[in-house]
Amino acid sequence: MAVVVMTLFPMSRAPMSPDIGKATMDMASAPGAVPAHRHPPRDVSAELPQPSVTHLVFPDVMGGYNVQILPVHFKFTPAAINHAPKDNEGHAHIYVNGVKIARVYSNWYHLSGSSLVPGQNEVKVTLNANDHSAWSVNGVPISSTVKVFIPEATP
User: Fold this and answer.
1) To 10 degrees, the CA torsion angle through 9, 12, 17, 18?
2) Measured in whole angstroms, how far is the alpha carbon of residue 117 from the centre of its chain?
3) 130 near 95, Cβ under 8 Å?
4) pTM
5) For position 123, what pLDDT does the model report?
6) Which domain of life is it from (predicted)?
């Protein structure tokens, strides 16, 4: 698991409401949030190279954040979704603060700015098989977590 700590500052000088730092958001009701559900872990084959993943989160000048997913020994296979699992293939899931936000079928994903709240946020990426089970090693899901700090708005 990779953990990266980042502080993101607004790239615009546009005035912000003084109340923006006081806003709270229930991530389970965030736009695009998926109700919590679990898929069992699926251990990777010991005979094949072990997949791994790390990811980066970049502010997007047009709003929100871009997530770059960097898997090793893993192939995104969007055409095979919901089919039988095939070793070291599948898709990714993105979670923000423990809530699943999306399935991802390639190395890049645009994360809405409303997905992150002022303060510390955790953006997690898991590698998943075509049947949505989480690829794992010895029962531990293959994942990457990045901590993203969003500063409180200043008046």
Assistant:
1) 40
2) 15
3) no
4) 0.75
5) 98
6) Bacteria
